[in-house]
Structure formats: C-alpha cells, structure tokens
Amino acid sequence: MTGMKKATEKHLMVFSGRAHPELAADVARILDTDLVPTSAYEFANSEIYVRYEESVRGCDAFVIQSHTAPINEWIMEHLIMVDALKRASAKRITVVMPFYGYARQDKKHRGREPITARLVADLFKTAGANRLITVDLHADQVQGFFDGPVDHLMALPILADYVFEKYGDQKLAVVSPDAGRIKVAERWSARLGGAPLAFIHKTRRTDRPNEVSANRVVGDVKGRLCVLVDDMIDTAGTIEKASEALMNDGAAGVIVAATHAILSDPAVDRLKNCQAKEVIVTNTLPLAPDRAFDKLTQLSIAPLVARAIREVFEDGSVTSMFDGHA
Hints:
By secondary structure, the protein is an alpha/beta fold. 30% of the residues lie in helices and 25% in strands. A seven-stranded mixed sheet has the order 10-9-8-11-12-13-14, sandwiched between helices.
C-alpha cells in the first residue's frame, strides 16, 4: 500500500536547453534541485538530437529555454526536448520560455502576413506541452494563442524596485516609448509612488522593420528624471530617439528599464552613445561579454521564474505573486 502511495507522489524535474544554461542553473539552485543531465548535439546536417540521461517517467517537468539568436535553432531544440519528455511518459510538461520567440508577430498589419506567435504556441501544444510560463510578452493576447494555462510573469517588480531604491529621492516621470504601452507605464507609475506619465508619439515605418521616423513627447517631463520603460531592446533605435526627444524637452536625465535585452546590432553602440545614463535589463536572454558596457545593469529573473515553477508544482497561485496585478 505504501508503494502505491509513493508512486503517485509528485516529482519535480528541471531541464535546460543550450540557449541560456546559466539562467536555468540559477533557477534550479533556488529550487534546491539539479538540472537533469541531458545529451544534446547536432548531426552533420545540423539536425538536433536530444536524450535525457535518467528516467523522467511520471515527473512534473519544467523545460527552460530562452529563445535567443539563432532563434529558430533554439525553438526547435525546445520543441524536441518537449517531444522527448512526452514520449518518455513525463506526467506534465511545462514549457518555460523567459523570452517567447516571435511574440512580436502577434497580428496581421497587412494582407498575406503570418501570425507566427500563434504558430509557435501551436507547435508547443503539438509537441506535448501542457502549460507555458513566460515573462513580459510583447502583447497580452499571445496568452490566448496557447490551448492551455499560460503563466505570464512580470519583471516590473524587480526593475521598478531597483529604480526606486537608486533614484526614488529624485523627481521622476515614467515614459512609455509609444502610446500602445501606456498600460505598462501606469503600473510603473503606481509602483514608483504615482510618478507622472508621459509617452513618445512616434510614427513607425511599416515598410522597414525596426525603423521609426518621427518622435515628440506628450506630457510634462521638464526637470524630471525620466524612466523610459519597454518590454525589450532590440536594435535600440526607439530608445536612442526617445532619449534624445526627452532631453530636448527639458528632462533632467533619462534611465532605461526593459525586460528583454535582445541587443541586435547596432544596439550596443547606440546605447553607449545615447543620452540615457543607465540601461537596466534582466537576464531573460543571455548577454555575451562583448555586449556588456559601463552603463548597462543586468538584474536576475531567476528568483521570479523559480517562484512561479514552485507555485505551479505545488498547485499554488502564480497570480498572487503580483499582488493582484497579474
């Protein structure tokens, strides 16, 4: 009888792909467990092979992989890892993607375009994922693309608490880089003691990706330290132009806070030379040593991810982690 009871006990196992093993190792350490030993390599024609070195039967599996460049390779590895777990009889498979690849392709702007964020969700469902955990999606509706529970974590408390601790004694303003992200800026404002809001009115070119053609500040930023908040920094064109617009409008200074540091070229040069005096990001994506620069501060997302994994494993509430703001 005792044997039967033991067989039904839940068993947590954490797995890591090869995209960002340092983050997965930090998460496992906080959860007081080890990453499951995994063999993963490419065949000569670049096909990916994955095999777990111990039994995963009946486990509650959490597979961590950040979708960083080369993004298609790491998404494919992530899918193969999920498939391997399903075929090895894991009881429940939770896909942990601190950065959700293709999240920006969440709707059609013009005819004959794909909605790739939906395709990625479908691929993980087909591979065998029961649940997703992700951080700061580019658009909230991406949660609805996956047919199952999605835990959408927010890095805002980590970033905002750092900003408040360091700059809380100054006159602050929270600035959204565009009108569409005002809701996020409002949450920041509440966290920073009701700092006033402003946003950058920008015109984006639909024919050229990552390109903005005009900026003007809406809101009063004169004499204030502006906290420019965004979900990601890719080529940093938006940040560079917004910082310039804020300083031209009389801001006392600019600091940048963003969750995902994609930092595609020429982002590092732009950020080094732009008017912002500090750029604060998290480690949802790996940061190569040559991408680091003096005014870049990287905060760890591992405690947040580990806590979400623990809540899911223990059937607790992930929403409670955000004081009802999730």
